[in-house]
Design a protein that fits this description.
This protein is of the alpha/beta class. It contains 7 helices and 17 strands. The strands form 4 sheets. Strands 1, 2, 3, 4, 5, 6 and 17 form a 7-stranded mixed β-sheet that branches. It has a 5-stranded parallel β-sheet with strand order 8-15-9-10-11. The protein has a 3-stranded antiparallel β-sheet with strand order 12-13-14, with no helix packed on it. The longest helix has 21 residues. Bound molecules: flavin-adenine dinucleotide. The site of flavin-adenine dinucleotide (FAD) has 41 residues, from helix 1, strand 7, helix 5 and helix 7.
Length: 313
């Protein structure tokens, strides 16, 4: 593998893939470090809703490889490796990866987020044994069983609807008093005969010796055990920025602040997708960020303009 690139993109989700496509089409020598999961969060989504051009939705495992193919055809290169850190040397960024060091004049950070865990007893022991973050992967395994979904946002409701196609009963356990998901999901969930919603519920423990058999819950009236065959957890996302370890100022949520062109405080370093501050959290928005960042990187390489003073390193 070459080690010198004009643009290196960290992240193989829709933001990184779209940045790669745009950057390569602009004629820039471009490498994508995909991390572990090419396709990112979308890879396991059975039906991406609201993505332009696909009125019936599109599976993430179809859409992401299509964008990768398009980016490869435009000349982008790919490496299955994670970015471990960046250091400024002369006018280049030195990038540490498990596959060795690469150098780049511009870097686009599109490392996305991971689904948060509950942090309660039983979770670590039963991870992968009935606790899941992927309804479309595991729904066939819970055919005709009762399952619980934890959360009240878009992801929780969308995945509850997927599960309801297989499970006998889906119980949504939500900590708050109202669902925060968009109306399109709320209406369908409320009307669905297989889905029940319980509000003001704290899940205290996952039960089961070697597979999930239930959860211990608490509400205003006290505690109780609820029998379920599996637990699907969608309680929010944590940005993947720990690898930057102080090299970049992060916002209070751990996300990367950018300006309208996706430029960070470090010259030649941009961020795109749900890892950046105030991202919209939808696939189309991440794709748009990727395009904006690649265009800004191209302009920076052409004229060296950067609005902030820090040099990093
Ligand atoms: C259950 C669920 C359902 C959803 N449904 C929809 C929907 O229907 N419609 C919609 O518009 N949106 C939906 N979303 C939101 C959508 O998935 C995200 O907005 C979008 O995938 C974010 O893309 P991204 O590229 O910014 O980040 P991610 O998808 O998180 O991609 C990040 C990428 O970075 C890589 N990475 C991580 N660390 C490193 C590193 N150190 N170095 C290199 N690479 C790294 C990862 O491997 C991954 O490839 C859903 C989300 C969830 C959780």
């Amino acid at each position: 593998m070459d080690t010198d690139f004009e643009v290196v993109i960290a992240g193989g989700g829709i933001a990184g893939l779209t940045a790669a496509l745009t950057s390569a089409r602009l004629g820039r020598k471009t490498l994508v470090l995909t991390g572990d999961v090419l396709g990112g969060l979308l890879l396991s989504i059975e039906k991406i809703d609201g993505f332009p051009g696909f009125p019936e939705g599109v599976p993430g495992y179809d859409l992401c490889p299509m964008i990768q193919e398009q980016a490869t055809a435009a000349g982008a290169e790919f490496a299955v490796a994670a970015l471990d850190g960046i250091t400024r040397r002369d006018d280049r960024w030195q990038l540490k990866t498990a596959a060795g060091e690469v150098r780049a004049r511009a870097v686009i950070l599109a490392t996305g987020s991971t689904l948060k865990e509950l942090g309660i007893p039983g979770e670590a022991r039963l991870r992968g044994k009935g606790i899941s973050h992927c309804a479309s992967c595991d729904a066939p395994l819970v055919r005709n069983r009762t399952v619980a979904v934890i959360g009240g946002g878009d992801s929780a409701l969308q995945e509850a609807l997927t599960l309801a196609g297989f499970a006998e009963r889906v119980i949504i356990l939500h900590r708050g008093k109202a669902l925060s998901a968009q109306a399109a999901y709320r209406d369908r969930v409320v009307e669905h005969r297989k889905i029940e919603i319980r509000f003001d519920i704290v899940v205290e423990e996952v039960l089961g010796a070697d597979k999930v058999t239930g959860v211990r819950i608490r509400d205003a009236t006290g505690g109780a055990d609820l029998e379920v065959a599996a637990l699907f957890v969608y309680i929010g996302l944590a940005p993947t920025t720990a690898f930057l370890s102080g090299q970049l100022t992060l916002d209070p949520f751990g996300k990367i602040p950018v300006d309208g062109r996706m430029r960070t405080e470090l010259p030649g370093v941009l961020a795109a997708g749900i890892v950046r501050s105030e991202a919209a959290g939808r696939a189309a928005a991440s794709a748009g960020d990727g395009t904006t960042a690649a265009v800004a990187a191209d302009r920076y390489l052409a004229n060296g303009d950067w609005p902030f003073g820090k040099t990093g390193g």
